[in-house]
Amino acid sequence: MTALLLLLAQVAGSQTAKEPEWSTVNVAVEPTARHEAGMVAVHGKGYLMGGRGIKPVEEFDPATGVWRRLRPTPLEIHHFQPTAVGGLVYVMTAMTGEYPSETPLDRWLVFDPREDRWQAGGPIPEGRRRGAGGTAVHDGKLYVAGGIVNGHTSGTVAWFDELDPDTGQWRALPEAPRPRDHCSAAVSDGKLFLVGGRNTSHHEPGAFTAFFGAVIPEVDVYDFASGEWSTLRQPLAVPTTAGGLVALNGWIYYFGGESAERFAHSETHRIDPRTGAVGLTASLNRGRHGGGVAVIGGKAYIAAGSGGGGGGPELSSTEVFRPDRRALGARGNLRDQAAGRQHTPASRRTPATTLASFPSQELTSWHSGLWVTMEPERATFVAANIGHLRVPYRLRQV
To answer: Phi-psi bin for 134: left (phi > 0), alpha (psi -120 to 50), beta?
Structure first.
């Protein structure tokens, strides 16, 4: 065991500079604290918008680290994933109004960052209006999947729609494999990945907010070439809702989110679009959900959000994710998180001085792309951090 720990420590020391990592961006003035917001990249800058209440749009320049305040949105918009086409930002699945009976927008909205100007787009078909859906762009068209019709009360759907921003034509497509809301979408390798979310329509007698536990671990995938949906074999290791999702350097990353736990999550999942492998990588410095997310200059940024379950505390910090470019050619080192296996989030593991014993089990630990497996009659393992790097682990019954 001592030799194993020394080996892992050596790996940590030798690869620290090359590991994927999240870091907090030092800015002179932080953006407005908000949650259930969105962010999108246009012309090399990020635009944070929306959230509960009417908030200003704020522009982030990663070259200078400066946030600049623009005009507020024309109305309260929240629970949406903005997308950009041709230098314009589109908001398609926002809600407006107060919890729990928020209403979806009846028209999509268009924002011009260069003019700092909003305008109303075309009407959303009455039978397809909803909020909290996942939205992405493919070949110049906008796609929205999932969502909920009636705020946080009822109407979670599996709808999948296409909007042509040039013609304003709205078209219903084959439904996703399952209803979900508070989800996110991203496109990679000609496929749309629908990740995270829950069924907010789930309520129990005396427990209206039982929906916090109705998270959806499955990752659903739409193939634009075949026009068909499928589901990845491996689910999320730590299923959450309202996390951030980006396609970056050939991978899909899903990070943060909320569940029935008291605090927001910090875990980052990494999905291989080609093989469907799902694993964990570096965690956020601050767990959060409902923040704005954008890819700028080959890095992922997340700003604002909520640090706890539900609506608070609202955050104003910004983090940046630097992926491990070296890992792009070593996809085989990313081990799958098998369905139904017990997983303990990194933020909740025992201190490094604490030992945990697991009789008659196989323990597999992933660290820095290295997998170590032990199969003793009674394995003893330190389930914790090595240095400043978290060591994820999982258990599998032999």
So the answer is: beta
Residue 114: predicted pLDDT: 98
State residue 19's pLDDT score: 81
CA distance 314 to 294: 19
Q: Say what the pLDDT of residue 136 is.
A: 98
DSSP reduced 3-state for 290: coil
DSSP single-letter state for residue 131: B
Cα 32 to its chain centre, rounded Å, is: 21
Q: CA gyration radius for the chain?
A: 21
Q: Which residues contact 247 (CB under 8 A, 6 or more apart)?
A: 186, 187, 188, 193, 273, 295
Q: Is the dihedral of CA 208, 209, 214, 220 positive or negative?
A: positive
At residue 115, the pLDDT reads: 98
Query: Residue 43: helix, strand or coil by DSSP?
Result: coil
Q: How far apart are CA 74 and CA 97, in angstroms?
A: 13
Neighbour tally for 255: CB within 10 Å: 30
Contact 365, 389 (CB under 8 A): no
Q: How far is CA 364 from the centre of its chain?
A: 26
Closest Cα to residue 243, out of 262, 265, 263?
265
The pLDDT assigned to 262 comes to: 95
Q: What is the pTM of this model?
A: 0.80
Stretches in the chain below the pLDDT threshold 50: 2, 4-17, 326-398
Could you tell me which of 301, 294, 283, 304 has the C-alpha nearest to residue 36?
A: 304
**Token couple for 78:** 């929240």
Q: Which residue has the tokens 């570096």?
A: 282
Which residue is associated with the tokens 């820095």? 368
* 114 to 32, 39, 121: CA distances (angstroms): 20, 16, 18
**Whole-number Cα distances in Å, 60 to 57, 87, 289:** 10, 16, 19
Query: What is the structure's pLDDT at 18?
Result: 63
Please tell me the predicted confidence (pLDDT) of residue 325: 59
Short-list 320, 376, 341, CA closest to 61: 320
